[in-house]
Amino acid sequence: MLTQTGKYSITSSYLALIGQQPRMRTADLVWTSMALPKHRFITWLAVQGRLLTQERKLKLHIQVEDTDCCLCDKKVMETTLHLLVKCEWAQAIWKEVEQWTGIVLHNNGIKPTLERIMLKHWKKVKKETIAATCGAIIYHIWRARNWKKFKGKSVHTKEAVTQIKKEIIERLQFLSSSKKTESCRSF
Fold first, then answer.
1. pLDDT tens digits for 70-113?
2. Which residue spans traverse the membrane (predicted)?
């Protein structure tokens, strides 16, 4: 495909094939290098509504025996919003991490949380660190759900929070050779 200047460009050919896709405003926070790759991937799936929750299985016409959330054992359908935000088990995780960081992290969903982080008048490194912390929370909620559903093992909230803290601190230490992380070492 030729550009406006008459030269061939792979980029212009690619864009001609797929069309101009809207850029997700929160993508930079999801894919930040502050977050571990496994956290980034699960967070991306959650933001896109692609986690294979019981609700999503039903939408995909996959037979489901039990649609209830397995973390809180309430008679509530397991949706992405319920599992990651509204579930009592998940809320306990969010609250403990909020106490640790001193920052209120969530409100009505994952996208609104990331959008709120973007709107804060914080330095970029703080936004990325808080977003990475949210990603760790999302990952560990999803992991606890899978352990209970497929292994029959319950994960205690304290255990999940300890792991979240450990992973965030280790990631900050790993990236500490860059001056970028200096301001986030306080928590």
1. 999 889 999 999 999 999 999 999 999 999 999 987 678 999 99
2. none
pTM: 0.84
> Residue 142 falls within a domain, yes or no?
yes
Q: What DSSP line would sit under 131-156, residue for residue?
A: HHHHHHHHHHHHHHHHIIIII--PPP
Q: From CA 11, how far away is CA 122, in angstroms rounded?
A: 33
For tokens 């709120």, the residue is: 116
Domain count, the chain: 1
- Which range of residues forms the domain containing residue 137? 24-184
If one counts every other C-beta atom within 10 angstroms of the C-beta of residue 33, the result is 13
Three-state secondary structure call for residue 185: coil
Angle 50-108-166 (CA atoms, 0-180°, nearest 5)? 75
CB 81 within 8 A of CB 53: no
Q: Answer whether residue 16 is part of any domain.
A: no
67 φ, ψ (degrees, to nearest 5) = -95, 0
Q: Would residue 33 count as lying in a domain?
A: yes
